[in-house]
Amino acid sequence: LAKTTQPISMDSYEGQEVNITCSHNNIATNDYITWYQQFPSQGPRFIIQGYKTKVKNEVASLFIPADRKSSTLSLPRVSLSDTAVYYCLVGLPITGTASKLTFGTGTRLQVTL
Amino acid sequence: DTGVSQDPRHKITKRGQNVTFRCDPISEHNRLYWYRQTLGQGPEFLTYFQNEAQLEKSRLLSDRFSAERPKGSFSTLEIQRTEQGDSAMYLCASSFLTGLEDTQYFGPGTRLTVL
Questions:
Q1: What is the SS3 assignment for A51?
Q2: What is the structure's pLDDT at A79?
């Protein structure tokens, strides 16, 4: 079971870069790593997904080391609106393994002025 | 809006009543997932469908829970004889499996309160 561990909370000032790391020591060969953002009373919103090395899109970067036992979500120049809970999800539901999809408890990011 | 939609957004019911939630996935997505999320926790997998076939159910899922996706499009999640412990946010997600990539997109959720 690809259990994930994230810091419970992080604080940042507006305009700073924020890096959130997720540990997933038992990641399986075919598992992808996906990060989501969630605001109160809303469903998680997809941010970025990767398998290995580095992935970048218009809102974030994802760094995955060669052993894939961890991953780091990087948010450049955060704003107040980035205050949310961030989850990493590890796993790919090839038939019979969906129950192994694991969200951690998430990291609560608080951005202030 | 072509995202995942869920109905109702909120449901208050009395213990022992049955409730049914609906999820409309993104058009042409072949996979549909149901999750449950309680306060302060990450989403917990319940079940998922590929097209109309229910491929897996969580072992934690009580027999009081049943889900269907009759035509491979929308899905319903029914909870029979609700209990106070069923109070949670029920999330639906859909995806289109291509090779090994399966990015899930979530709906806004249905918040259930059992009195």
A1: coil
A2: 97
